[in-house]
Structure formats: C-alpha cells, structure tokens
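Q: What residues go here?
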C-alpha cells in the first residue's frame, strides 16, 4: 500500500484496483483483472475482510492528484493512450505503463470506475472514469448511482488509516501535498473544501454519465466540497 499525507490525516491506499484471484482471495497487484460487478456495499465488505476499508472521496481525490497535483493523475493534460480509456473493454491492472502518478498509483483514470465513500449523499459514488470515458473523467469528476447498482464498469480499491497498527503488504511511499495546495480552513469537522487549480478545470460540456441510472458531476473551482468524514478513518 502507498502512504498518503493530507492536511487532515494520513492513510494508506492500494496501488491497483482490487482483483479476486480465487473465490474470497483478494489482492491489489499488477496484471490481474479488476473485480467488477459488485455494489458499493459489497466492495466495503471485501475491504473489511482484508482489515481495510473503502476510501472516502477526499482520500481518493488527494491520492489521485499525487504530489504534482495533476488533473489526470499522470499529467495535467488528457492523453487518450496513457490509460485504458475510450476503449471497448476493461484491461488488466497496470496494463498501460503510462497510467500512473508520481507516487506509484496505477489506473486511477479509466479502466474501472472505483467506488468511494461519501457520507453526504443518499446515492453511492464512483471516481476515476471507466474504459469508455474520455477527457471528461479526471481526478475531480464524481459519478453518483443508486445504492443497489452493480456494473461491469465499476470496481474499487481499498484504503487503511495510517494511525491504525497493522502489517501493510507491498511498497509504501509517502505522498505529502505541497504547502501551496493545502486548503483554506473554512470547514467543519466532517467536510473538506478542495479547489481544482485553474489549469485543471474540467470541460463543462462533459456532463453525461456513461452508465444508465447514474449522474455525473464535475468539480468547479471554489465549488468542490470533498467529504473528509472522520468516521471513515476508524
């Protein structure tokens, strides 16, 4: 897992989307097919089976941006071939060698959308876009779905609070956002105001959810309320 530091707290995040190598045997490793067609609640339970939890929306977004705070994780500008995007099928984890950020997180853009926790909404939330999305899906884009939905474009990865003691498998790296990217302290105990840099503004014309029954929202500057639910850190 990879260690991420934010102004609020530190946490670990899996480097790849979760895969199921055998029934009930879950890993976050390269060259495996992501586990898809699971609901957000099922994803949460699978994370718990590994003594982890589903990432919250604040954690996922910060991890996606990396230390360089790049809109598309790998860079500030969209490149169609960097990740598994605008294609016909999901790919194995880490299949696109350019689809990673400076901290070693892979496939945050494209391939499978990823379930995250958002305590503010009655719907469930996915991030990162899928293999059919394009430039409209960046680190800030959020997709909302009815709680019961399962889909072959949606998977997940897990997080774990750094404050909790456990043996963490694999590589761990520190991700500390630059001081200039820390947010203004205009928030309460359970919400985080997080702005996209002006050079990372999304395309306002891209507002269609690629999955039936869902809604797509893009982050506007000074309008991005990223939930940092302290209850998620237990």
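A:
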């Amino acid at each position: 897992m990879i260690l991420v530091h934010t102004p609020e707290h530190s946490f670990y995040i899996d480097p790849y989307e979760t895969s199921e190598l055998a029934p009930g045997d879950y890993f976050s490793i390269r060259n495996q097919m992501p586990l898809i067609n699971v609901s957000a609640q099922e994803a949460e339970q699978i994370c718990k089976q590994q003594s982890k939890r589903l990432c919250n929306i604040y954690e996922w977004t910060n991890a996606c941006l990396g230390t360089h705070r790049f809109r598309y994780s790998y860079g500030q500008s969209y490149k169609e071939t960097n990740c598994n995007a605008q294609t016909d099928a999901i790919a194995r984890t880490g299949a696109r060698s350019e689809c990673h950020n400076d901290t070693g997180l892979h496939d945050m853009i494209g391939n499978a959308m990823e379930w995250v926790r958002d305590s503010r909404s009655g719907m469930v939330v996915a991030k990162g876009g899928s293999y059919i999305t394009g430039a409209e899906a960046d680190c800030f884009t959020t997709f909302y779905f009815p709680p019961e939905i399962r889909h072959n474009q949606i998977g997940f990865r897990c997080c774990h609070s750094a404050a909790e003691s456990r043996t963490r498998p694999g590589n761990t790296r520190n991700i500390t956002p630059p001081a200039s990217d820390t947010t203004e302290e205009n928030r309460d105990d359970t919400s985080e105001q997080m702005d996209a840099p002006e050079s990372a503004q999304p395309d306002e014309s891209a507002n269609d959810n690629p999955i039936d029954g869902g809604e797509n929202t893009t982050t506007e500057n000074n309008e991005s309320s990223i939930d940092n639910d302290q209850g998620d850190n237990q």
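A: Context that may help when evaluating the design: The chain has two helices and 14 strands. The longest helix spans residues 40-49.
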